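Journal club prep, notes for RB
We'll compare a predicted complex against what the paper describes. Inputs for the zinc ion case:
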Amino acid sequence: MYAKSSIDDSYHLLAADEQQTLCGLDVAPIIIDRPAKTSALHLTSQKPTDRALCPKCAECTLANDWSQLPHRDNLRKSKRV
Ligand SMILES: [Zn+2]
């Protein structure tokens, strides 16, 4: 899932809870898969091809890529118990 809005010419990646972007912006819990004119940051299931990835989100991905995966697994295990 990705996040975008029509006033922003880049798209964002989502944090694990899908309520915020990796760069810390709030995302509306709606999925719009066609071109939409809304200033609200919303979800889209397809990677926007006409936009570049937000530089802050890209930084977060590089910083957290491998180190977050074991952490997420631990979270899932603790919820199941
Ligand atoms: Zn971002």
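Talking point for the session: The mean pLDDT is 84.
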